[in-house]
Amino acid sequence: MPSVLLGLAVLAFWLYSLFDVITTPEKETRNLPKILWVLVIVLVPLVGSVFWLLLGRPLRSRPLRMPGRSIMDAAEPPRGPDDDPDFLRDLDRRMRDDD
Question: Alpha-carbon distance 60 to 69, whole Å?
Fold first, then answer.
């Protein structure tokens, strides 16, 4: 039973590393081109995964943000309709018109 759990843990680690390499932009990989990192992880699963995390993974020194949004947009959280005074004013007007 412990060997099955160890095997599943190694498989999960390998899949995580492979997915991480595939989703990392080409310009952000370190020390080797992206395709070589994929080959290293596929051919030498456990050692390649450890090497990827230590030597190839990009350093995240800047904050992560969604594509298409500026840092100024990320500073303000999204507002709900009940926090929008224009929406509430329009809703009040529509409710009075229905009466």
Answer: 18
Residues 8-38 have pLDDT tens digits of 999 999 999 999 999 999 888 889 999 999 9
Integer CA distances (angstroms), 67 to 70, 72, 73, in order: 8, 13, 11
Q: Give me the pLDDT at residue 75, please.
A: 61
Cβ pair 55, 40 in contact under 8 A: no
Query: Which residue has tokens 């992206």?
Result: 34
pTM here?
A: 0.58
Please name the residues in contact with 18: beta carbons below 8 A apart, sequence gap of 6 or more: 38, 41, 42, 49
Q: What is the 8-class DSSP label of residue 25? A: -
Q: According to the model, what pLDDT value does residue 77 have?
A: 67
3-state helix, strand, coil in the chain (%, to 5): 70, 0, 30
**Residue ranges in 1-99 assigned as alpha helix (H):** 2-23, 34-43, 45-51, 71-75, 85-98
